[in-house]
């Protein structure tokens, strides 16, 4: 090359530039032009490199390899050579040679993510897993400075989802195997509401770069949203082995274990993290939740107390103490919570969640102190704040329930015929929260043939998927969609429910409880896909139940409960729907009236067991001795013998509950019977409520 004059070299570079333009589409043409240049200037490095690139694209990597090695010896600082040499070595299956080339490349160009990703793949193939993981992490770090990805991320965080998606889809057309862009596109699509499509993309990103911790973290959270708990745990286990140790990985695994019901394992993680670093109020709070669920009340109180000592404004920890129900917050606690509210009021960045949790906590503390007016005021403030943060349309919900009521009628069900999964395993306990359902669950799970699980979301997810087919326009209404399900479809859906819930079954007991209260909305669907399942409707006086629900801050899922009118309308929809289903399918549902259960527990337990076809066992009457984990708001109450002091507690607030009386009308007057026609008219005719 030393004999090539500058003007000639410039001409050859121009010619090579034209040849390079055809490299991807016409590598044969690019090779011919490069070889023509080399005949005029043997060893001319740009021509040699172009020839090797063309040879690889023509499937002749073996011919390119020795030429690249010769070319690289005098020019070790040219990244393009190592890039091409690495690709050739990979195509030839020589990962050790590829690793050498890629390590040289990444030292020279550490900001190029693709080089790191290629290195990670080669390292993984030769068994150097930890080194591969670190290479993936270096790739992600390099990608964090990519202007195109930064622009897309900014657009996403600013809410310009269409713009972010367009940018990322354009990039995907050029670089379809880019793990960072793929994960980011998955997040955009998740924010748009399409969890299934987001999951596909994030799984692809993790498969392409197994050491991409942020993608795997996001994948675990998406799997949790889809209730795919075993898969979530598998990925959380992998994440916990990352060479970049982070407490967040352990905390994520603990949250998966909690969802799986393995409270002991989750608690061990929290305790280990606190041994290493005790000043973590959030972890103390999480440990308190685990201990509460396991029935270790004194230890739970200690954990919650440690959390608020470290962070006095931590509203959820205060509420967790109050929510034990059996703990009385004293005057010093009330002073501390009021002080926390004052502190939050002066902090512009304060979390609204802390504020409403503190109001709920003060409501409970003042109620226990007998100051019912002040308690109601704090409950009202907390509910108003919470209601402003959630979306609940009572009209839309009533319309959905009316559609279900109109669908599952006796004439319609007669046309459907037999079908569904015949397994008798599930026992559904439905109704409203705070209706005594946890008490019923604890009684039944004390029987040797019944396993208690938790509030399982699976039936609601199946129902939601079917409703989406109506919402997407595939069917004109719910009735048409349900009518389209063949006997085989219904069997498949019932089997899907059993398969999805199997992960929560830890014993060989033949029956198990699903205590998701909201499943009353899907009682017709349950009957169609699981015809031998049992349904127990736990019902409590409408004023007592609605007021108790309104006082309770639920972690998630009960969006109707933060306004007295909303919760009363929800109760009214529930009573109307269940009455209609009782008429359509008599004796399908067994109803447990809470007040009767606390007045005559042996008699009600006998009737309950008879409905289930189970023989009496004394343990059902000493249910409070059952040490199973309980996750609901009534966890501590069901660890004591039945008490009656909550039955008429609402009467302390009767003058403040006008919205409940106005909406419930005859439903409250007739209880435990139901109005013959569910209406708010002045004439009330009550019809007996069937027990089964």
CATH-assigned homologous superfamily of one domain: P-loop containing nucleotide triphosphate hydrolases
Low-confidence stretches: 631-640, 679-683
Average pLDDT taken over every residue: 91
Portion in beta strands: under 5%
Portion in helices: 55-70%
Find the count of extended strands (DSSP E, 2+ residues). 7
Quickly give the structural class. Answer: mainly alpha
Distance between the termini: 96 Å
Computed over alpha carbons, the radius of gyration is 32 Å
Strand order in space, largest sheet: 2-3-1-4-5
Question: Would you give the CATH topology of one domain?
Answer: Rossmann fold
Shape: elongated
Counted by DSSP, the helix tally is: 35
Report on the architecture of this protein.
By secondary structure, the chain is mainly α. It has a domain at 394-687: Rossmann fold. The chain contains 35 helices and seven strands. It has a five-stranded parallel sheet. Helix 18 packs antiparallel against helix 19 (315-322) and helix 20 runs antiparallel to helix 21 (352-368). The longest helix has 21 residues, at 564-584. The radius of gyration is 32 Å and the shape is elongated. 45% of the residues are buried. Mean pLDDT is 91; it is low at 631-640 and 679-683. InterPro entries: P-loop_NTPase, TPR-like_helical_dom_sf, TPR_rpt, TPST-like. Pfam families: Sulfotransfer_3, TPR_14, TPR_16. TPR repeats lie at residues 281-314. GO terms for molecular function: protein-tyrosine sulfotransferase activity. Keywords: TPR repeat, Transferase.
């Amino acid at each position: 090359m030393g004999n090539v004059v500058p003007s000639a070299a410039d001409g050859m570079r121009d010619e090579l530039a034209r040849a390079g333009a055809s490299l991807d589409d016409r590598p044969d043409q690019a090779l011919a032009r490069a070889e023509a240049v080399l005949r005029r200037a043997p060893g001319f490095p740009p021509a040699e490199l172009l020839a090797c690139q063309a040879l690889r694209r023509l499937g002749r990597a073996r011919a390119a390899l020795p030429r690249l090695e010769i070319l690289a010896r005098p020019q070790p600082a040219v990244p393009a050579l190592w890039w091409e040499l690495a690709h050739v070595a990979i195509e030839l299956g020589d990962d050790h040679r590829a690793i050498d080339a890629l390590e040289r490349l990444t030292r020279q160009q550490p900001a190029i993510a693709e080089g790191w990703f290629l290195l990670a793949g080669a390292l993984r193939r030769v068994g150097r897993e930890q080194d591969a993981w670190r290479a993936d992490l270096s790739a992600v770090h390099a990608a964090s400075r990519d202007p195109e990805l930064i622009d897309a991320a900014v657009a996403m965080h600013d809410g310009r989802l269409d713009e972010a998606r367009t940018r990322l889809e354009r990039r995907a057309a050029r670089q379809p195997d880019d793990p960072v862009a793929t994960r980011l596109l998955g997040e955009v699509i998740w924010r748009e509401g399409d969890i299934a499509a987001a999951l596909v993309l994030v799984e692809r990103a993790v498969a392409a770069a197994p050491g991409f911790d942020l993608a795997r973290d996001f994948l675990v959270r998406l799997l949790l949203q889809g209730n795919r708990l075993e898969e979530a745990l598998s990925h959380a286990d992998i994440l916990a082995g990352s060479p970049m140790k982070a407490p967040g990985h352990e905390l994520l695994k603990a949250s998966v274990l909690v969802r799986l019901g393995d409270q002991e394992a989750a608690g061990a993680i929290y305790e280990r993290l606190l041994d290493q670093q005790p000043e973590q109020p959030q972890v103390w709070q999480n440990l308190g939740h685990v201990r509460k669920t396991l029935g270790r009340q004194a230890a739970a109180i200690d954990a919650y107390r440690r959390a608020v000592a470290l962070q006095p404004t931590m509203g959820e920890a205060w509420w967790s103490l109050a929510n034990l129900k059996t703990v009385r917050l004293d005057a010093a606690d009330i002073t501390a919570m009021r002080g926390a509210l004052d502190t939050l009021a002066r902090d512009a960045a304060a979390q609204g969640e802390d504020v409403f949790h503190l109001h709920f906590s003060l409501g409970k503390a003042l109620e226990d102190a007998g100051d019912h007016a002040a308690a109601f005021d704090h409950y009202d403030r907390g509910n108003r704040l919470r209601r402003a943060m959630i979306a609940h349309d009572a009209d839309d919900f009533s319309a959905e329930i009316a559609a279900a009521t109109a669908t599952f009628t006796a004439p319609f069900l007669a046309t459907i015929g037999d079908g569904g999964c015949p397994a008798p395993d599930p026992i559904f306990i439905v109704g409203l929260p705070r209706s005594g359902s946890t008490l019923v669950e604890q009684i039944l799970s004390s029987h040797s043939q019944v396993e208690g699980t938790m509030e399982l979301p699976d039936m609601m997810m199946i129902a939601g998927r079917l409703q989406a087919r109506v919402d997407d326009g595939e069917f004109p209404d719910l009735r048409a969609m349900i009518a389209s399900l063949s006997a085989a479809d219904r069997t498949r859906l019932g089997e899907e429910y059993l398969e999805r819930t199997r992960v929560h079954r830890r014993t060989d007991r033949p029956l198990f409880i699903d205590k998701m209260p909201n499943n009353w909305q899907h009682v017709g669907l349950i009957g169609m896909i699981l015809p031998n399942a049992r349904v127990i409707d736990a019902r409590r006086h409408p004023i007592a139940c609605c007021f108790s629900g309104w006082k309770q801050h639920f972690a998630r899922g009960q969006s109707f409960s933060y306004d007295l009118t909303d919760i009363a309308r929800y109760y009214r929809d529930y009573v109307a729907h269940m009455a209609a289903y009782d008429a359509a399918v008599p004796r399908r549902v067994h109803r447990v009236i809470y007040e009767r259960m606390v007045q005559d527990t042996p008699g009600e337990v006998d009737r309950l067991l008879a409905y289930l076809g189970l023989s009496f066992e004394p343990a059902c009457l000493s249910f409070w001795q059952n040490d199973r984990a309980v996750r609901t708001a009534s966890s501590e109450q069901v660890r004591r013998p039945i008490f009656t002091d909550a039955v008429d507690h609402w009467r302390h607030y009767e003058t403040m509950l006008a919205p409940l009386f106005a909406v419930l009308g005859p439903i409250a007057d007739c209880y435990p019977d139901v109005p013959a026609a569910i209406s708010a008219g002045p004439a009330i005719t009550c019809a007996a409520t069937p027990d089964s």
